[in-house]
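Hi all, a correction to my earlier message: I attached the wrong file for Dienelactone hydrolase family protein. Here's the right sequence:
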Amino acid sequence: MVASAHAAVREEPVTYTDGETTMKGFVVYDDATQAKRPGIVMVHEWWGITKHIHNEARKFAEQGYTAFIADMYGDGKTADNPKDAGALSGSVMKDPKVMEQRFNAARQQLAKQASVNPQLIGAVGYCFGGAVVLNMARAGADLAAVAGVHATLGLNTPAPAPGTVKAKILILNGADDPFVKREQYDALKKDFDAAKADYRIIEYPGAVHAFTNPEATELGKKFNLPLRYDAKADQEAKAEAAKLFAANLQK
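and the right structure:
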């Protein structure tokens, strides 16, 4: 008896450009259905596109989304140490225009995919990527929902005017993450309240930075950084993000 070909999550490289810069992203989707589905732009941690972001993208594909892994550094650059990671992420965040152009280039690629309903697009970002997607929401990007996961809160976009934030916003952070200061939360809340944005912040007790990344504990030990995987917080955060996207993208 011949087994029928099983539908599978497909991951395809996508080369695109931001001005003169070549970007190397990935589109990830389940080929079990031909129907158009909601899209999620995924923004990586400061290390660049790693195994963790590929795994997260597959999980979103299994939930019925087309995920697009954005390349924020160009040419698929990655870092294997904090010094290089800080330089790469800093090169994007120091100029909000660069950050916005690179995100928008990825969003446009996602919207063009045959498997995507371009009217239903959200975004998720991890660590550095969390700051990117929150800043894009502040800037009024055309996104239905945005989740920042162990998001750094380096706000480099102007405070939004009332009514300009389109996305429903969810911040899923470790309560004990030393990379995120209380005054940063205060500034973010003040801006979002004044803009009448729809946002929620959930902090997981005992969790530190990078808690959804199974490789975080080893990286934390290697570089003496407060990074640690937390299975419970990871599971709870994934469930919250799934609820956010289901409520706002699954029309």
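Sorry for the mix-up. The beta strands are 9-18, 21-30, 37-43, 66-69, 116-126, 145-149, 168-174, 199-204.
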